[in-house]
Amino acid sequence: MNTKKQLRIISPNGHLGFAPTKEESFKLGAATKPDYYCCDSGSDDIGPAPLGADKSVGMYDWQVHDLELMLLAAREQGVPMIIGSSGDTGTNSRVDMYVQIIKDLAQKHQLPNFKLAYFYSEVDKELIRGKLQSGVEVEGLDGRSSLTLAELDKTDRIVAVAGIHPFIKALDMGADVIIGGRSSDAAIFAAPAIREGFPEHLSYYLGKVLECASFCAEPYAAKESVIGTITHNEVLVTAMHPDQRCTVASVAGHAMYERSNPFFEYFAGGMLDMTNCNYEQYDEKTCRITGPVFAPIEGKVKVKLEGAGKVGEKYIGIAGIRDPYTIKHIDKVIEWSKNQVAEMAAGKEYFVDYKIFGKNGVMGELEPIKDIGSHELCVVVEGVAETKELAEQVTLMATRQIFYARLPEVKGTAGTASFVVDEMLRCTPAFEWTMNHVIPVDDPLELFDVHMIEVAQS
């Protein structure tokens, strides 16, 4: 029987390492002595390329900065620190990188010995293949059909999205610091609350409101800390930045964004129903929430799978345009460029895209672009092909042909494009999402390998 009346969790950053945590509000929060230091370090909002290429999108130094802030505060206070979706994607290499950072920081600051748990989330393609061949249906999400072997074959890397279970196991093992693979954002915060006996419906809501840190406060400010407090009857969320407040509008708005149905969110084993949530202004900086419902789903637990597959090599070119006549006829310029690329690369597979940025907005190819009222445009050209050579050729041809476009009424060289970047920018290869599915499992820990080590000074 849980006798603890409340639990307090600090969330310092909505995406650890994506941009550095702001230190002032973090230190204000740490001074209140929260029970846990928890942070989400990843997202599929960054697209499939980081997962497919197995790389981070956050700068290494920024990730070290954020981990150092949390580790020193948590170890000084003697309370757990929990990280999920390490290194943006939660792949095995990102988990290993974070584990090494923690070891290095412990050595740097000569911290007393502590227990570090970590778990992996990558899934072997052959395991999924075996499931499919044995008749297991891997259902698609967001309108996707069930997974096929052809889609699996196009996949380069897969991660399973952990729920609360590996975090709870690590805490049960005595972990002081947890470095997690790919994870449900909210589970990182819900896990310690559920483990300590607080109601599931409030624990999951606590996770939902804390996952993006200060995004649930106003005025808008990213990378600032907030503290969530859970009791057996309510959730309270408080802004730490001196000029921010968690209001009814800011908290309710955050809880309902980014989903097709803003009132429901699926977690492994159940659905959080926020239809009847009640929001009240508790004090100047704090919003109080009651009323969420967690409905368990009957049958096997289903774990989300994210998979990415390589499409091709990618280059980017940039053209700036100030000539009024060219701007007025930019649709014909793009058409000319596309036709020239098609002629050059006839019979070859490639992809080319044009993004047109103007002083008065951003336009894609299919949107009306006449009479835009701008004196300057920037065209970003993206070319993708199987080989680096063809991708560069396609991108370079598409970008230069903006300058060479043959427009009616132009006599001689009219200076159509004032600036063209001839040196193409080579990018991370292009990837696509190949898997956004759920797979049934007999054990919610089936796809997650939890390890424990002692971090000691040499």
From TrEMBL:
It comes from the Bacteria. Residues 64-429 form the Acyclic terpene utilisation N-terminal domain. Pfam families: AtuA. InterPro entries: AtuA_N. This is Acyclic terpene utilization AtuA family protein. It comes from Paenibacillus thalictri.
